[in-house]
TrEMBL record:
Gene Ontology MF, one: betaine-aldehyde dehydrogenase (NAD+) activity
Keyword match Disulfide bond: no
Subunit structure: Dimer of dimers.
Name of the protein this chain belongs to: Betaine aldehyde dehydrogenase
EC number, UniProt record: 1.2.1.8
Pathway(s) this gene product operates in, as recorded in its UniProt entry: Amine and polyamine biosynthesis; betaine biosynthesis via choline pathway; betaine from betaine aldehyde: step 1/1
Organism: Fuscovulum ytuae
Binding site for NAD(+): G149, A150, W151, K175, P176, S177, E178, G251, C283, E381
Keywords recorded for this protein, A-Z: Metal-binding, NAD, NADP, Oxidation, Oxidoreductase, Potassium
GN (gene name): betB
Any Pfam family hit: Aldedh
Length: 484
Protein backbone atom coordinates (compact mmCIF):
# COMPACT_ATOMS: atom_id res chain seq x y z
CA UNK A 1 0.00 0.00 0.00
CA UNK A 2 2.70 2.44 -1.03
CA UNK A 3 0.20 5.20 -1.89
CA UNK A 4 -2.46 4.72 0.78
CA UNK A 5 -4.08 8.09 1.61
CA UNK A 6 -4.97 9.21 5.12
CA UNK A 7 -8.61 8.42 4.37
CA UNK A 8 -10.90 7.93 1.39
CA UNK A 9 -12.63 11.33 1.36
CA UNK A 10 -11.88 14.96 2.19
CA UNK A 11 -14.97 16.69 3.55
CA UNK A 12 -15.48 19.96 5.44
CA UNK A 13 -11.78 20.60 5.83
CA UNK A 14 -10.48 17.20 6.89
CA UNK A 15 -10.03 13.59 5.86
CA UNK A 16 -13.05 11.36 6.41
CA UNK A 17 -13.36 7.57 6.36
CA UNK A 18 -16.48 5.44 6.18
CA UNK A 19 -15.63 1.80 5.52
CA UNK A 20 -19.29 0.97 5.03
CA UNK A 21 -18.74 2.10 1.45
CA UNK A 22 -17.66 -0.47 -1.14
CA UNK A 23 -13.87 -0.79 -1.43
CA UNK A 24 -12.08 0.53 -4.53
CA UNK A 25 -8.62 -0.88 -5.22
CA UNK A 26 -6.05 1.49 -6.73
CA UNK A 27 -3.85 -0.44 -9.17
CA UNK A 28 -0.38 0.69 -10.25
CA UNK A 29 -0.59 0.16 -14.02
CA UNK A 30 3.11 -0.61 -14.44
CA UNK A 31 2.98 -3.71 -12.23
CA UNK A 32 -0.66 -4.54 -11.53
CA UNK A 33 0.07 -4.08 -7.81
CA UNK A 34 -2.60 -2.77 -5.43
CA UNK A 35 -1.09 0.41 -4.01
CA UNK A 36 -4.08 1.77 -2.08
CA UNK A 37 -7.68 1.04 -1.18
CA UNK A 38 -10.36 3.70 -0.79
CA UNK A 39 -14.03 3.31 -0.03
CA UNK A 40 -17.00 4.54 -1.98
CA UNK A 41 -18.84 7.45 -0.41
CA UNK A 42 -21.92 6.44 1.54
CA UNK A 43 -25.03 8.65 1.43
CA UNK A 44 -23.96 10.11 4.77
CA UNK A 45 -20.59 11.21 3.33
CA UNK A 46 -22.23 12.71 0.24
CA UNK A 47 -24.72 14.57 2.43
CA UNK A 48 -21.98 15.97 4.64
CA UNK A 49 -19.98 17.11 1.61
CA UNK A 50 -22.86 18.92 -0.09
CA UNK A 51 -24.12 20.43 3.15
CA UNK A 52 -20.70 21.80 4.06
CA UNK A 53 -20.27 23.25 0.56
CA UNK A 54 -23.65 24.95 0.77
CA UNK A 55 -22.87 26.38 4.19
CA UNK A 56 -19.41 27.71 3.27
CA UNK A 57 -20.21 29.12 -0.17
CA UNK A 58 -22.17 32.19 0.89
CA UNK A 59 -19.42 33.57 3.12
CA UNK A 60 -16.79 32.81 0.48
CA UNK A 61 -18.78 34.62 -2.22
CA UNK A 62 -19.02 37.70 -0.02
CA UNK A 63 -15.23 38.00 0.29
CA UNK A 64 -13.31 40.44 -1.86
CA UNK A 65 -12.11 38.66 -5.02
CA UNK A 66 -8.53 39.64 -4.25
CA UNK A 67 -8.79 37.87 -0.88
CA UNK A 68 -9.97 34.69 -2.58
CA UNK A 69 -7.16 35.13 -5.08
CA UNK A 70 -4.45 35.20 -2.41
CA UNK A 71 -5.51 31.76 -1.15
CA UNK A 72 -5.49 30.21 -4.61
CA UNK A 73 -2.10 31.75 -5.34
CA UNK A 74 -0.69 30.24 -2.13
CA UNK A 75 -2.04 26.84 -3.20
CA UNK A 76 -0.28 27.17 -6.55
CA UNK A 77 2.99 27.95 -4.76
CA UNK A 78 2.60 24.89 -2.50
CA UNK A 79 2.01 22.66 -5.52
CA UNK A 80 5.17 23.92 -7.19
CA UNK A 81 7.20 23.52 -3.99
CA UNK A 82 6.10 19.87 -3.73
CA UNK A 83 6.35 19.10 -7.42
CA UNK A 84 8.53 16.00 -7.13
CA UNK A 85 6.34 14.26 -4.55
CA UNK A 86 3.13 15.14 -6.36
CA UNK A 87 4.52 13.94 -9.69
CA UNK A 88 5.46 10.60 -8.14
CA UNK A 89 1.96 10.19 -6.72
CA UNK A 90 0.46 11.02 -10.12
CA UNK A 91 2.68 8.42 -11.78
CA UNK A 92 1.64 5.78 -9.26
CA UNK A 93 -2.03 6.70 -9.73
CA UNK A 94 -2.01 6.78 -13.56
CA UNK A 95 1.09 4.91 -14.78
CA UNK A 96 2.24 7.95 -16.75
CA UNK A 97 6.02 8.47 -16.99
CA UNK A 98 7.54 10.68 -14.33
CA UNK A 99 9.06 12.82 -17.10
CA UNK A 100 5.46 13.74 -18.05
CA UNK A 101 3.97 14.20 -14.60
CA UNK A 102 6.84 16.46 -13.53
CA UNK A 103 6.02 19.00 -16.24
CA UNK A 104 2.45 18.49 -17.46
CA UNK A 105 0.02 17.38 -14.76
CA UNK A 106 0.33 19.17 -11.43
CA UNK A 107 2.25 22.08 -13.04
CA UNK A 108 -0.73 22.70 -15.33
CA UNK A 109 -2.97 22.61 -12.26
CA UNK A 110 -0.79 25.18 -10.50
CA UNK A 111 -0.91 27.40 -13.58
CA UNK A 112 -4.71 27.21 -13.51
CA UNK A 113 -4.96 28.19 -9.86
CA UNK A 114 -2.54 31.06 -10.38
CA UNK A 115 -4.20 32.35 -13.54
CA UNK A 116 -7.73 32.32 -12.18
CA UNK A 117 -6.47 33.94 -8.99
CA UNK A 118 -5.24 36.80 -11.15
CA UNK A 119 -8.44 36.91 -13.17
CA UNK A 120 -10.89 36.99 -10.26
CA UNK A 121 -10.41 40.65 -9.23
CA UNK A 122 -10.91 41.78 -12.86
CA UNK A 123 -14.36 40.23 -13.32
CA UNK A 124 -16.83 43.11 -13.33
CA UNK A 125 -20.26 44.01 -14.63
CA UNK A 126 -21.25 46.80 -16.98
CA UNK A 127 -23.27 49.99 -16.89
CA UNK A 128 -25.83 50.58 -19.65
CA UNK A 129 -27.07 54.19 -20.00
CA UNK A 130 -30.75 54.67 -20.87
CA UNK A 131 -30.92 58.44 -20.86
CA UNK A 132 -32.28 59.43 -17.44
CA UNK A 133 -32.27 55.84 -16.12
CA UNK A 134 -29.63 53.15 -16.41
CA UNK A 135 -29.04 49.40 -15.99
CA UNK A 136 -26.06 47.85 -14.32
CA UNK A 137 -25.06 44.19 -14.19
CA UNK A 138 -23.38 42.08 -11.54
CA UNK A 139 -21.61 38.77 -12.09
CA UNK A 140 -22.55 36.43 -9.26
CA UNK A 141 -21.33 32.92 -8.44
CA UNK A 142 -23.66 30.01 -9.17
CA UNK A 143 -23.35 28.35 -5.75
CA UNK A 144 -22.43 24.71 -5.18
CA UNK A 145 -20.72 23.12 -8.18
CA UNK A 146 -20.08 19.44 -8.77
CA UNK A 147 -16.94 18.36 -10.61
CA UNK A 148 -16.65 14.86 -12.06
CA UNK A 149 -13.17 13.92 -13.19
CA UNK A 150 -11.63 11.47 -15.66
CA UNK A 151 -8.74 9.09 -15.09
CA UNK A 152 -6.30 10.33 -17.74
CA UNK A 153 -5.35 13.69 -16.15
CA UNK A 154 -6.90 13.36 -12.69
CA UNK A 155 -5.05 16.10 -10.81
CA UNK A 156 -4.97 18.55 -13.70
CA UNK A 157 -8.71 18.11 -14.21
CA UNK A 158 -9.39 18.65 -10.50
CA UNK A 159 -7.46 21.93 -10.64
CA UNK A 160 -9.00 23.01 -13.96
CA UNK A 161 -12.46 22.68 -12.42
CA UNK A 162 -11.67 23.93 -8.92
CA UNK A 163 -9.71 27.03 -9.95
CA UNK A 164 -12.44 28.95 -11.82
CA UNK A 165 -15.17 27.70 -9.49
CA UNK A 166 -13.40 28.88 -6.35
CA UNK A 167 -11.91 32.05 -7.83
CA UNK A 168 -15.38 33.23 -8.84
CA UNK A 169 -16.97 32.55 -5.45
CA UNK A 170 -18.43 29.06 -5.77
CA UNK A 171 -17.93 25.91 -3.70
CA UNK A 172 -17.16 22.53 -5.26
CA UNK A 173 -17.73 18.88 -4.48
CA UNK A 174 -15.38 16.85 -6.65
CA UNK A 175 -15.67 13.17 -7.52
CA UNK A 176 -12.52 11.75 -9.11
CA UNK A 177 -12.60 8.74 -11.37
CA UNK A 178 -12.65 5.56 -9.32
CA UNK A 179 -9.62 4.43 -11.36
CA UNK A 180 -7.42 7.35 -10.22
CA UNK A 181 -8.72 8.64 -6.87
CA UNK A 182 -5.55 9.88 -5.18
CA UNK A 183 -4.52 13.26 -6.58
CA UNK A 184 -7.72 15.15 -5.79
CA UNK A 185 -7.30 14.34 -2.10
CA UNK A 186 -3.92 16.05 -2.15
CA UNK A 187 -5.42 19.09 -3.85
CA UNK A 188 -8.04 19.38 -1.11
CA UNK A 189 -5.35 19.09 1.56
CA UNK A 190 -3.21 21.76 -0.14
CA UNK A 191 -6.13 24.18 -0.49
CA UNK A 192 -6.87 23.95 3.23
CA UNK A 193 -3.20 24.50 4.02
CA UNK A 194 -3.27 27.58 1.78
CA UNK A 195 -6.14 29.02 3.84
CA UNK A 196 -9.29 27.90 2.05
CA UNK A 197 -12.36 27.78 4.27
CA UNK A 198 -13.46 24.26 5.24
CA UNK A 199 -16.25 22.94 3.04
CA UNK A 200 -15.40 24.90 -0.09
CA UNK A 201 -13.61 22.03 -1.83
CA UNK A 202 -14.67 18.51 -0.90
CA UNK A 203 -13.58 15.21 -2.47
CA UNK A 204 -15.79 12.13 -2.38
CA UNK A 205 -14.89 8.80 -3.96
CA UNK A 206 -17.19 6.54 -5.86
CA UNK A 207 -18.54 5.10 -9.05
CA UNK A 208 -21.59 6.13 -11.08
CA UNK A 209 -24.09 5.99 -8.22
CA UNK A 210 -22.14 8.57 -6.23
CA UNK A 211 -21.90 10.83 -9.26
CA UNK A 212 -25.64 10.50 -9.84
CA UNK A 213 -26.39 11.42 -6.22
CA UNK A 214 -24.33 14.58 -6.59
CA UNK A 215 -25.72 15.58 -9.97
CA UNK A 216 -29.34 15.28 -8.81
CA UNK A 217 -28.95 16.99 -5.43
CA UNK A 218 -31.28 20.03 -5.38
CA UNK A 219 -28.59 22.14 -3.68
CA UNK A 220 -26.25 21.74 -6.67
CA UNK A 221 -26.31 24.62 -9.17
CA UNK A 222 -23.77 23.42 -11.74
CA UNK A 223 -22.10 20.23 -12.98
CA UNK A 224 -18.76 20.05 -14.79
CA UNK A 225 -17.88 16.67 -16.29
CA UNK A 226 -14.86 15.33 -18.09
CA UNK A 227 -15.58 11.86 -19.44
CA UNK A 228 -17.00 9.72 -22.20
CA UNK A 229 -19.96 10.49 -24.46
CA UNK A 230 -22.20 7.81 -22.84
CA UNK A 231 -21.45 9.22 -19.38
CA UNK A 232 -22.03 12.72 -20.69
CA UNK A 233 -25.47 11.81 -21.99
CA UNK A 234 -26.50 10.43 -18.61
CA UNK A 235 -25.13 13.40 -16.66
CA UNK A 236 -26.70 15.92 -19.05
CA UNK A 237 -30.11 14.28 -18.73
CA UNK A 238 -29.91 14.12 -14.94
CA UNK A 239 -28.75 17.73 -14.65
CA UNK A 240 -31.48 18.92 -17.02
CA UNK A 241 -34.15 17.63 -14.66
CA UNK A 242 -33.04 20.26 -12.15
CA UNK A 243 -32.26 22.89 -14.82
CA UNK A 244 -28.64 22.99 -13.68
CA UNK A 245 -25.76 24.67 -15.47
CA UNK A 246 -23.60 22.09 -17.25
CA UNK A 247 -20.21 22.00 -18.93
CA UNK A 248 -18.97 18.76 -20.43
CA UNK A 249 -15.69 17.86 -22.11
CA UNK A 250 -16.23 14.49 -23.72
CA UNK A 251 -14.54 12.26 -26.30
CA UNK A 252 -12.98 12.95 -29.66
CA UNK A 253 -11.78 11.49 -32.93
CA UNK A 254 -9.85 14.51 -34.01
CA UNK A 255 -8.26 15.12 -37.43
CA UNK A 256 -4.65 16.20 -37.88
CA UNK A 257 -4.21 17.36 -41.49
CA UNK A 258 -0.73 17.41 -43.03
CA UNK A 259 -0.37 19.17 -46.40
CA UNK A 260 2.50 18.33 -48.73
CA UNK A 261 4.24 21.68 -48.14
CA UNK A 262 4.50 21.07 -44.39
CA UNK A 263 7.70 20.33 -42.50
CA UNK A 264 7.63 16.53 -42.35
CA UNK A 265 9.78 16.49 -39.24
CA UNK A 266 7.48 18.86 -37.37
CA UNK A 267 4.34 17.11 -38.58
CA UNK A 268 5.68 13.71 -37.52
CA UNK A 269 6.59 15.09 -34.11
CA UNK A 270 3.11 16.57 -33.67
CA UNK A 271 1.44 13.34 -34.81
CA UNK A 272 3.47 11.40 -32.25
CA UNK A 273 2.59 13.87 -29.48
CA UNK A 274 -1.03 13.65 -30.59
CA UNK A 275 -1.11 9.86 -30.38
CA UNK A 276 1.56 8.53 -28.02
CA UNK A 277 1.86 11.10 -25.20
CA UNK A 278 0.31 9.66 -22.04
CA UNK A 279 0.14 6.35 -23.92
CA UNK A 280 -2.45 7.89 -26.20
CA UNK A 281 -4.92 8.50 -23.38
CA UNK A 282 -5.72 12.11 -24.26
CA UNK A 283 -9.21 13.17 -25.34
CA UNK A 284 -8.01 15.77 -27.86
CA UNK A 285 -5.57 13.44 -29.62
CA UNK A 286 -5.29 13.75 -33.40
CA UNK A 287 -5.94 10.08 -34.02
CA UNK A 288 -6.99 10.53 -37.66
CA UNK A 289 -3.81 11.77 -39.36
CA UNK A 290 -4.66 12.86 -42.91
CA UNK A 291 -1.46 13.06 -45.00
CA UNK A 292 -1.48 14.47 -48.54
CA UNK A 293 -0.40 11.80 -50.98
CA UNK A 294 2.67 13.66 -52.20
CA UNK A 295 4.50 13.16 -48.88
CA UNK A 296 2.71 10.09 -47.54
CA UNK A 297 5.50 7.52 -47.85
CA UNK A 298 8.17 9.96 -46.64
CA UNK A 299 5.97 10.80 -43.67
CA UNK A 300 5.39 7.12 -42.84
CA UNK A 301 9.06 6.22 -43.13
CA UNK A 302 10.15 8.97 -40.75
CA UNK A 303 7.26 8.21 -38.41
CA UNK A 304 8.30 4.56 -38.19
CA UNK A 305 11.93 5.52 -37.50
CA UNK A 306 11.05 7.86 -34.66
CA UNK A 307 8.38 5.61 -33.18
CA UNK A 308 10.86 2.72 -32.97
CA UNK A 309 13.00 4.81 -30.61
CA UNK A 310 10.26 5.48 -28.03
CA UNK A 311 11.39 4.09 -24.69
CA UNK A 312 8.78 2.03 -22.83
CA UNK A 313 9.42 0.91 -19.29
CA UNK A 314 9.26 1.76 -15.62
CA UNK A 315 7.28 5.02 -15.34
CA UNK A 316 9.32 6.07 -12.32
CA UNK A 317 12.53 5.94 -14.40
CA UNK A 318 13.19 9.48 -15.72
CA UNK A 319 14.39 7.98 -19.02
CA UNK A 320 11.08 6.26 -19.75
CA UNK A 321 9.11 8.03 -22.49
CA UNK A 322 5.91 5.98 -22.55
CA UNK A 323 4.21 4.09 -19.77
CA UNK A 324 1.37 1.59 -19.58
CA UNK A 325 -2.31 2.06 -20.15
CA UNK A 326 -4.23 2.89 -17.01
CA UNK A 327 -5.81 -0.54 -16.47
CA UNK A 328 -6.07 -4.08 -17.76
CA UNK A 329 -9.55 -3.24 -19.05
CA UNK A 330 -8.22 -0.33 -21.09
CA UNK A 331 -5.34 -2.43 -22.43
CA UNK A 332 -7.72 -5.15 -23.58
CA UNK A 333 -9.94 -2.56 -25.25
CA UNK A 334 -7.02 -1.06 -27.16
CA UNK A 335 -5.68 -4.46 -28.22
CA UNK A 336 -9.19 -5.23 -29.50
CA UNK A 337 -9.13 -2.13 -31.71
CA UNK A 338 -5.71 -3.14 -33.05
CA UNK A 339 -6.99 -6.61 -33.93
CA UNK A 340 -10.03 -5.12 -35.67
CA UNK A 341 -7.86 -2.73 -37.70
CA UNK A 342 -5.81 -5.68 -38.93
CA UNK A 343 -8.96 -7.63 -39.78
CA UNK A 344 -10.44 -4.69 -41.70
CA UNK A 345 -7.37 -4.37 -43.91
CA UNK A 346 -5.39 -1.45 -42.49
CA UNK A 347 -1.64 -1.73 -43.14
CA UNK A 348 0.39 -2.14 -39.94
CA UNK A 349 3.43 0.13 -40.11
CA UNK A 350 4.82 -0.55 -36.63
CA UNK A 351 3.79 -1.85 -33.21
CA UNK A 352 0.51 -3.69 -33.02
CA UNK A 353 1.12 -5.89 -29.97
CA UNK A 354 1.22 -5.89 -26.21
CA UNK A 355 4.70 -4.75 -25.22
CA UNK A 356 7.07 -7.53 -24.19
CA UNK A 357 7.62 -6.37 -20.61
CA UNK A 358 7.39 -8.55 -17.54
CA UNK A 359 4.46 -6.79 -15.89
CA UNK A 360 1.96 -4.05 -16.43
CA UNK A 361 -0.53 -2.93 -19.03
CA UNK A 362 1.86 -1.86 -21.80
CA UNK A 363 0.93 -1.65 -25.49
CA UNK A 364 3.44 -0.87 -28.24
CA UNK A 365 3.08 2.51 -29.95
CA UNK A 366 1.22 1.50 -33.09
CA UNK A 367 0.75 3.05 -36.53
CA UNK A 368 -1.67 1.91 -39.24
CA UNK A 369 -1.58 3.27 -42.79
CA UNK A 370 -4.04 2.97 -45.69
CA UNK A 371 -6.88 3.50 -43.23
CA UNK A 372 -10.22 4.36 -44.85
CA UNK A 373 -12.98 6.53 -43.45
CA UNK A 374 -15.30 3.55 -42.98
CA UNK A 375 -12.90 1.51 -40.83
CA UNK A 376 -13.63 1.20 -37.12
CA UNK A 377 -10.22 2.69 -36.36
CA UNK A 378 -11.27 5.89 -38.14
CA UNK A 379 -14.70 6.10 -36.49
CA UNK A 380 -14.34 5.20 -32.82
CA UNK A 381 -12.23 6.64 -30.00
CA UNK A 382 -9.51 4.14 -29.08
CA UNK A 383 -7.87 6.04 -26.20
CA UNK A 384 -4.56 4.28 -26.55
CA UNK A 385 -1.28 4.60 -28.51
CA UNK A 386 -2.78 3.77 -31.91
CA UNK A 387 -2.44 6.16 -34.87
CA UNK A 388 -4.52 5.93 -38.04
CA UNK A 389 -2.92 7.49 -41.15
CA UNK A 390 -5.28 8.31 -44.03
CA UNK A 391 -4.51 9.62 -47.54
CA UNK A 392 -6.01 12.69 -49.19
CA UNK A 393 -5.54 14.69 -52.39
CA UNK A 394 -7.35 18.04 -52.16
CA UNK A 395 -8.17 20.60 -49.50
CA UNK A 396 -11.91 20.42 -50.14
CA UNK A 397 -11.87 16.63 -49.87
CA UNK A 398 -9.96 16.51 -46.58
CA UNK A 399 -12.11 19.16 -44.87
CA UNK A 400 -15.27 17.24 -45.74
CA UNK A 401 -13.81 13.94 -44.55
CA UNK A 402 -12.38 15.47 -41.37
CA UNK A 403 -15.85 16.77 -40.47
CA UNK A 404 -17.56 13.44 -41.16
CA UNK A 405 -17.70 12.40 -37.51
CA UNK A 406 -20.02 12.81 -34.54
CA UNK A 407 -17.13 14.31 -32.57
CA UNK A 408 -15.85 17.86 -32.64
CA UNK A 409 -13.31 18.29 -29.88
CA UNK A 410 -10.08 19.22 -31.65
CA UNK A 411 -8.29 19.55 -35.00
CA UNK A 412 -4.88 20.48 -36.34
CA UNK A 413 -3.37 21.66 -39.62
CA UNK A 414 0.25 21.55 -40.77
CA UNK A 415 1.16 23.66 -43.80
CA UNK A 416 3.61 26.36 -44.82
CA UNK A 417 0.72 28.31 -46.38
CA UNK A 418 -0.78 30.25 -43.49
CA UNK A 419 -3.62 31.57 -45.63
CA UNK A 420 -4.65 27.99 -46.31
CA UNK A 421 -4.13 27.09 -42.64
CA UNK A 422 -6.61 29.71 -41.46
CA UNK A 423 -9.05 28.84 -44.24
CA UNK A 424 -9.00 25.15 -43.36
CA UNK A 425 -9.32 25.77 -39.63
CA UNK A 426 -12.34 27.98 -40.32
CA UNK A 427 -13.96 25.07 -42.15
CA UNK A 428 -13.32 22.42 -39.51
CA UNK A 429 -16.04 21.54 -37.00
CA UNK A 430 -13.99 21.49 -33.80
CA UNK A 431 -13.80 23.58 -30.66
CA UNK A 432 -10.04 23.53 -30.05
CA UNK A 433 -7.65 23.85 -33.00
CA UNK A 434 -3.94 24.18 -33.73
CA UNK A 435 -1.89 25.43 -36.67
CA UNK A 436 1.60 23.92 -36.99
CA UNK A 437 1.35 22.64 -33.41
CA UNK A 438 -0.75 20.07 -31.54
CA UNK A 439 -2.13 19.35 -28.06
CA UNK A 440 -0.80 22.50 -26.43
CA UNK A 441 -3.48 23.63 -23.94
CA UNK A 442 -2.35 26.67 -21.94
CA UNK A 443 -4.73 27.79 -19.23
CA UNK A 444 -5.01 31.18 -20.91
CA UNK A 445 -6.89 29.69 -23.88
CA UNK A 446 -10.43 28.22 -23.80
CA UNK A 447 -10.63 24.43 -24.18
CA UNK A 448 -13.67 22.41 -25.22
CA UNK A 449 -15.54 20.83 -28.07
CA UNK A 450 -18.57 20.91 -30.32
CA UNK A 451 -21.07 18.29 -31.51
CA UNK A 452 -20.88 15.14 -29.34
CA UNK A 453 -17.60 16.29 -27.81
CA UNK A 454 -19.33 18.46 -25.26
CA UNK A 455 -20.72 21.85 -24.31
CA UNK A 456 -19.12 24.85 -22.65
CA UNK A 457 -15.47 25.70 -22.20
CA UNK A 458 -12.78 25.28 -19.58
CA UNK A 459 -9.92 27.72 -19.03
CA UNK A 460 -9.46 31.22 -20.36
CA UNK A 461 -11.89 34.07 -19.79
CA UNK A 462 -14.57 31.88 -21.35
CA UNK A 463 -14.76 29.91 -18.09
CA UNK A 464 -16.20 32.98 -16.35
CA UNK A 465 -19.41 32.47 -18.32
CA UNK A 466 -19.76 28.95 -16.95
CA UNK A 467 -19.16 29.63 -13.25
CA UNK A 468 -21.13 32.86 -12.87
CA UNK A 469 -24.52 34.26 -13.81
CA UNK A 470 -25.53 37.82 -14.64
CA UNK A 471 -27.87 39.84 -12.46
CA UNK A 472 -29.38 42.82 -14.26
CA UNK A 473 -30.44 45.84 -12.17
CA UNK A 474 -32.64 48.64 -13.60
CA UNK A 475 -32.21 51.95 -11.76
CA UNK A 476 -35.01 54.51 -12.07
CA UNK A 477 -33.83 58.11 -11.64
CA UNK A 478 -37.13 59.93 -11.91
CA UNK A 479 -40.85 59.68 -11.23
CA UNK A 480 -42.66 56.48 -12.19
CA UNK A 481 -44.71 56.85 -15.36
CA UNK A 482 -47.77 54.63 -14.81
CA UNK A 483 -51.02 54.70 -16.84
CA UNK A 484 -53.12 53.69 -13.79
Amino acid sequence: MIAQPVASHFVDGSYVEDKAGAPIEVIYPATGEVIAVVHEATPAVVERAVASAKRAQGVWAAMKPVERARILRRAADIIRDRGDDLARLETLDTGKPIQETLVADWPSGADSLEWFAGLAPTVTGETIPLGRDFVYTIREPLGVCVGIGAWNYPSQIACWKAAPALALGNAMVFKPSEVTPLGALKLAEILIEAGLTAGLFNVVQGRGAVGAALVTDPRVAKVSLTGSVPTGRRVYAAAADGVRHVTMELGGKSPLIVFDDASVEDAVGAAMLGNFYSAGQVCSNGTRVFVQKGIKERFLARLAERTAKIGLGDPLDPATQMGPLVSATQMDKVLGYIAKAKDEGARLVCGGERAALNTGFFVQPTVFADVTDAMTLAREEVFGPVMAVLDFETEEEVVARANDTEFGLAAGVFTADLTRAHRVIAGLEAGTCWINAYNLTPVEGPFGGSKMSGVGRENGRAAVEHYTQVKSVYVGMGPVDAPY
